Amino acid sequence: MEALVLALSTVVRPTSAAAVFAMLSTARPTRLLLAYVVTGFLFSAGVGVAVVVLLGGWTGPDAPDQVRALVAILIGTLSLGYAAGLLTGQFERRVPVGPADGPGPTPDSWLGRQLADLTPARAATAGVLTHLPGLFYLAALNAITNSTASDVSRILQVAAYNAIWFALPAVALVLASHRPDEVQDVLRRLTDWIRRHERPILITAFGLLGGYLIVKGGMVLAS
């Protein structure tokens, strides 16, 4: 359940939405989106599977409670630290999208350079770069590892997490050949809203994640 909640919280990613919008703006978006989804999914799921299998003996159900608690507290502390950095202005996050007339990536951003003159290879690279593992993914992998001692179950959970994570570009891929204009309009509105509210959203999300994990780990240590 914990991993599912974390997966649902990452369905809409600003960089992913901007990348999908850029691909839908091309003459042949389907092949680009297919390369983006398949490559990104295989990379992210592959990393996730490797992590949960390798960590199985360290933070699995049979591991000492203190170890599992300390891992949760560590991830929670990093998450709270990031939220605090955003709150105080130490960290700056900006959705890599263009001016108010559209959410396409800016030419001088790393995503903008990757999505310039799009090819399937560039789209595939963008699929990896916009889904690099972060704190939410690490927290989800830790929750998956804690939930079961079965590697098969862990692998299936990682696959399910990534299927949810890639839901937005996957839906865009399905609709690309039928309703590309409608999908573009939705993404335009979505990324514009995210651009205006990104900082408080991130502060709240990372703050809640960090607080939850620290309290959870602290309760285990206290018991």
**Class per helix and strand makeup:** mainly alpha
Overall 3D geometry?
globular
How is the biggest beta sheet arranged? none
Into how many domains do the coordinates divide? Answer: 1
Low-confidence runs of at least 5 consecutive residues: 95-108
Tell me the β content: under 5%
Mean pLDDT: 82
Brief write-up:
The chain is mainly α and 223 residues long.
Write a structural description.
The chain is mainly α. The protein has one domain. It contains 10 helices and no strands. Helix 2 (14-24) packs antiparallel against helix 10. The radius of gyration is 18 Å and the shape is globular. The chain starts with a helix and ends with a helix.
Secondary structure layout plus pairing:
Blueprint: H1 2-8, H2 14-24, H3 29-59, H4 65-88, H5 110-115, H6 120-129, H7 135-147, H8 151-165, H9 167-175, H10 180-222
Descriptors for this entry?
single chain; 223 residues; mainly alpha; globular
